[in-house]
Amino acid sequence: MSTSSETNRAETNRNNAQYSTGPKTEAGKWRSSLNALRHGLTGQIVVMPQEDMTAYRAHLKTFTDEYHPKGATEAQLVQSLADTSWRLNRAAALEANLYTLAASVEKDPLTEAPGEVQAALESQAKALMILSLHSQRLSRQFERTITQLRHLQETRRVEETLQLNRLLDIMEMYRSKGKTYDPKPDGFVFTEQEIKQSIQSRTRQNLALQAYQTAAA
């Protein structure tokens, strides 16, 4: 493409932009706000252009800090929880905005023709109904996801406990023979810190049991 054509196109875009000033009246703003309702709760994009990516990342971190996911499946479920919660928060904000805009239209009906005002008010009822349906769907999705995540993590923790106890039993057997046991060849994937914490926990349990037996004797 020639430089002249590019210059002409840029000039045309600038001229067109002068006419794209957005809605000026409250009823016009009302209709424009419905775009967020249509595209902000059902689309694939989680963070809308007008939202803060830093705030979203902080929001996601609160969920990862709470659930400490292990593995891809748990991480995906935690991501889904955070995204659904983010959309639920957006729905609440949209609802507040809808009420605010509706109040503005009602207070100043002369900002647009009566027919436009009536259309905006009718849109309010429809928008709030749709918003309620989206909120209910998102709430159900959130509950299903959190139930699935908790079940998965509970199952994983039970299995980890069994594996750790089995590992400690083997380590004690080797120690009693004056040998050192390497858990990796047998498929144990626990970190040194996890093994150390488990040994300390078992030691405390044994000491507590001994103290109880001594007191009961």
SS field, number of helical segments: 6
The helix-strand sequence is HHHHHH
How many E-type strands? 0
Q: What is the subunit organization of this protein? A: single chain
Radius of gyration: 30 Å
Uncertain residue ranges: 12-23, 33-39
Structure classification? mainly alpha
Sheet of most strands: none
Q: What's the overall geometry?
A: elongated
Relative strand content: under 5%
Give the % helix: over 70%
Mean pLDDT: 76
> What is the first-to-last residue Cα distance?
96 Å
What report would you give on this structure?
The chain has 217 residues and is mainly α. The chain has a domain at 23-158. It is built from six helices and no strands. It has helices at residues 3-17, 26-40, 53-67, 71-107, 114-176, 192-216. α2 runs antiparallel to α4 (71-107), α2 (26-40) runs parallel beside α5 (114-176) and α3 (53-67) packs across α4 (71-107). The N and C termini lie far apart (96 Å).
